[in-house]
């Protein structure tokens, strides 16, 4: 065991890898031990031979071959370029933003329901905010924008209208139709509410 | 001496390195010509190391290509405040490790007839024999010992740099290096008999 330790120290000593204190210790030992001196000499020789491999260089042809292949591969697969990743990321983010705007622009906002007018006879109309005029009885179809403030959205519950104009027959007192008017005159959304189950808006 | 080399290696970036950092930034931005200059600067080092680790030029060329392609792919992850060469050498060691695992017949690297051939008076032939003998002895080492001694004694890196490249401690590297030196010495003596 002690001999192994000494061998390893000598293997480090011949290349100057020992700390100064250990180096001095080995030097003292080598003066008195011929066997370790032989080992040190043999190691110095083998290390000198090993270092001759430093002069062993690769041919320029081999280097050129590697370089050419690498550059061809890089040019062929341009997808590896870092900026490509950013282009895809920005394009994806832009697509998401556009889709969000489109959906928000078309979707009815429950908070923007302005007016609820039940059509059943004898039932008083529930009026919305004063700036919006309640619709008259809609026995006959009304122009979609009649009495509606520009650029505002509103809802009208009109069972009669739903039966007459949409052809959706609902049992009496069983369901309501919510008509949502949007900024786009060509877009009208109808929402059926079943009152049987105590459904509410 | 070794401490001085380590201190130099860890020293702040000198003007020459700043020029290299600009080259790196251009390569990161996708400038292939800038990356070609980086390849030309390190190709000899990478191919030599791969050859010494793998023992076969064809494998070493494959490994070098893989190293540079990986380097180009992951260049944006490199911290330009740190030295580039150990980063590349670490990648080379890792790629060689992968290729070494896939290699089917590592024993075919050795050519016993050539290694045991009687000495020829011609110096060139003797030199070739000696080279074969040394490469054979290197290939007989366990992978980690081989990497440590190649980086330390042939490539000339300091112990601290070798530890950084191999991802181990300096004490481990010293242990691997001294064991490998003793084994190389024994292999040389055995082949001389």
Annotation field: number of helices of chain B: 10
Query: SSE order of chain B, as H and E?
Result: HHHHHHHHHH
Mean pLDDT of chain A equals 71
Strand composition percent of chain B: under 5%
Count the strands of chain A? 3
Strand order of the largest sheet of chain A: 1-2-3
Percent strand of chain A equals 5-15%
Largest sheet, strands/sense/barrel of chain A: 3 strands, antiparallel
* N-to-C CA distance of chain A: 90 Å
Q: First CA to last CA of chain B: what distance?
A: 37 Å
Shape label of chain B: globular
Major sheet attributes of chain B? none
Outline of chain A, from the CA principal axes?
elongated
Q: Got a strand count of chain B?
A: 0
Assembly state (oligomeric):
heterodimer
Structural class of chain B: mainly alpha
Can you count the helices of chain A? 6
Average predicted confidence as pLDDT of chain B: 82
Query: What is the N-to-C order of secondary-structure elements of chain A (H for helix, E for strand)?
Result: HHHHHEHEE
Ranges of chain A where pLDDT stays below 50 over 5 or more residues in a row are 146-163
